[in-house]
Amino acid sequence: MLGGVRRVQYDDSDEAWERDIEVDDGEVRFVDATRVDCQGGWNVAVSVMEFVREEPLEGELRRRIAIALRSVETGTPSGEALVRAVGEVLDGLAEQTWAYVRG
Predict the structure, then answer these.
(1) pTM for this one?
(2) For the chain, does the N or the C end have fewer beta carbons within 10 angstroms?
(3) Averaged over 65-85, what is the pLDDT?
């Protein structure tokens, strides 16, 4: 996976992790996971999903992200593991995604 994962503090969460992007393409590769205990789980946000709204790329991203999230250990997964799993998907589709975003 390109880049690392770091723990961060967001005011509205109990725990948060985000991808530490080392290259200038955070729009395509950024992902974070936040946990709010009263909501009972993790919320994983993938920035590029705001921009990718056409098939087949949208469906492929969604399918691979779902598989990656399901592959993370069951029970109580860590935010770091969730971010890493999705980050690998984004790396694998980065070239296609950049081509789409650039139009």
Answers:
(1) 0.91
(2) C
(3) 93
